[in-house]
Specification:
Blueprint: E1 2-5, H1 11-15, H2 25-32, E2 37-45, E3 48-59, E4 66-71, H3 78-90, E5 93-99, E6 103-105, H4 109-112, H5 114-121, E7 125-127, E8 135-140, H6 145-151, H7 154-166, E9 169-172, H8 176-193, H9 200-210, E10 216-223, E11 226-236, E12 239-247, H10 256-270, E13 275-277, H11 293-300, E14 305-309, E15 313-316, H12 322-341
Parallel strand pairs: 4-5, 12-13
Antiparallel strand pairs: 1-2, 2-3, 3-4, 5-15, 6-14, 7-15, 8-13, 8-14, 9-10, 10-11, 11-12
Helix pairs in contact: 2-9, 7-10, 8-9
């Protein structure tokens, strides 16, 4: 097998062998604008491209090393691990964080993922701090619209009908204006709910790199001529994704978000998507006290299957320094949470 870096101008070839938005060439170009190094590798057999992968390398302060990140890549194998080790050494990486796009129904994941986890741990990987959630709800869009609506929970179905009856309407606004509306509402959402969000420039750069590909779409839920909810969704390789959403406080009684999710399901079917990945949830036994419980329950109401990914593993390239880094990083996050709690 030939393994080599991609050259400028090979964007179309590269994209033929990836299966997630975060592994696309366009996403890599966007990430370059956030001051990280992007490396792309191709795996060729008999001069034919079999697989592609994209890794970002992020500088680690003080220690003079980098941390690699490979989100939503293909099933780990010997060739991938060997190539990543070489690439990591070239980039002076302490480790490369792996979060493969490999999942199973949550009820079978423990046994189903056991061999993959064993493979990773016997090839220099250790369980790492997750950046992506381990679970997601995935909805099969190959069913009829009638079947999909019937799978909604009773409360969700009621709320969808209520929003429609109240006059909520869903419009696509995939434009610069639509993005600015999303950013405006996101600022209000984060202030109200107290969670972290990317900066406005992060989303502006994302839009500039992704808009021409048609992969990134922006939708608004409008009530009485005011945008109450704004969502960003991704379309890629026959899958619809819901990564980003924002909502206003007022008129929550008209259930605009419920209608938005239903209309995204209909949009996915219109675009001939096979499935809808709702981009993160809690596990099979969610804690009602968890701050994300309401979001989990909201997604669950649409009848998707709860799936569990392999999880997060760090391919360790410096076994001496890595344990110290993990300890310091853990203390850092404890400090940041404490600081937030006391309002500093």
């Amino acid at each position: 097998m030939l393994i080599r870096s991609f050259r400028k101008g090979e964007q179309k070839l590269y994209n033929t062998a990836v299966h997630h938005p975060l592994q696309t060439w366009e996403w890599g170009e966007f990430r370059k604008k956030t001051n990280v190094v992007v490396e792309r590798l191709g795996f060729f057999e008999n001069e034919k491209l079999q697989q592609s992968l994209q890794v970002t390398f992020h500088p680690l302060p003080i220690i003079g090393k980098t941390a690699g990140y490979l989100p939503k890549g293909f099933m780990p194998n010997e060739n991938q691990i060997a190539a990543l080790k070489r690439l990591g050494k070239e980039q002076n990486a302490l480790f490369i964080k792996l979060e493969p796009n490999v999942s199973q129904p949550a009820e079978t994941a423990v046994s189903g993922h056991s061999e993959i986890r064993k493979f990773l741990q016997t090839h220099g990987c250790q369980p790492g701090k997750p950046l992506f959630t381990k679970h997601t709800f995935e909805l099969d869009l190959q069913r009829s619209e009638e079947e999909l609506f019937a799978k909604l929970s009773n409360k969700t179905r009621y709320n969808v009908r209520l929003a429609s009856k109240k006059g909520v309407q869903i419009f696509e606004n995939s434009s610069d204006e639509g993005l600015e509306t999303y950013i405006e509402i996101l600022k209000e959402t984060t202030t109200r709910q107290g969670f972290y969000a990317h900066t406005p420039d992060y989303f502006r750069n994302m839009w500039q790199e992704l808009k021409d590909s048609g992969m990134m779409k922006i939708f608004n839920a409008v009530y009485e001529e005011k945008v109450l909810v704004s969502w960003i969704v991704f379309l890629f390789d026959g899958v619809l994704y819901y990564p980003y959403g924002a909502s206003r406080r007022e008129n929550r009684d008209v259930m605009a978000s419920n209608l938005m999710m239903w209309e995204m399901i209909r949009f996915g079917k219109k675009e001939n998507c096979k499935s809808f990945d709702m981009w993160g949830s809690l596990g099979p036994k969610p804690d009602p006290k968890n701050p994300w419980f309401g979001f989990h329950r909201f997604k669950k109401g649409y009848g998707g299957q709860l799936r569990e990914f392999i999880g997060t593993y760090d391919l360790v390239l410096d076994p001496t320094m890595y344990p110290l880094f993990r300890k310091v990083d853990k203390l850092r996050w404890k400090f940041l949470r404490l600081r937030k709690k006391i309002g500093l």
